[in-house]
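User: Could you go from structure to sequence for me? I need the amino acid at each position, not a summary. Structure tokens:
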């Protein structure tokens, strides 16, 4: 199955995936750049306050790389942006759980605090929602390409 066959190039869902990835990518890029320009210690487990969140050099670098992936998905658009959004969103949620378990330990290499965990959950669900919009639902309209892919063309149903 080729994902490019599922969604027409000019379908309106492509804009949701593209804008969602771009918006979240820009937010993460700004956060990462603010941390990078502050000259934060790379592996500090204490972190410093950047835009209301705790950060260190490693978290800034991870934020910039993640932003680049999301922005690349926004540039590519279509199903690629949707899939990238879904994967990155759930990785954010997973990161929130992992870093929640690592709070106040020496293994907290990303210098997370509770606001970071909450941000990770919220941003993860937001990004994943942008990716799943119009793809995952029990009540997709019959003209939706994903509904048609699952059930066959409307004239066949």
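Assistant: Here is the amino acid at each position, in order:
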């Amino acid at each position: 199955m080729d994902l490019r066959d599922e969604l027409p190039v000019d379908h309106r869902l492509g804009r949701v995936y593209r804008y969602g990835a771009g918006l979240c990518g820009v937010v993460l890029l700004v956060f990462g750049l603010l941390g990078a320009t502050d000259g934060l210690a790379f592996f500090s487990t204490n972190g410093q306050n950047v835009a209301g969140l705790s950060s260190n050099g490693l978290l800034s670098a991870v934020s910039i790389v993640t932003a680049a992936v999301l922005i690349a998905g926004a540039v590519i658009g279509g199903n690629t942006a949707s899939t990238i959004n879904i994967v990155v969103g759930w990785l954010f949620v997973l990161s929130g759980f992992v870093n929640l378990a690592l709070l106040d330990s020496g293994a907290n290499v990303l210098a997370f605090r509770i606001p970071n965990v909450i941000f990770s959950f919220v941003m993860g669900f937001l990004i994943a929602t942008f990716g799943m919009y119009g793809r995952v639902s029990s009540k997709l309209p019959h003209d939706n390409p994903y509904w048609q892919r699952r059930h066959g063309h409307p004239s066949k149903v």
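One structural detail worth keeping in mind: The radius of gyration is 18 Å.
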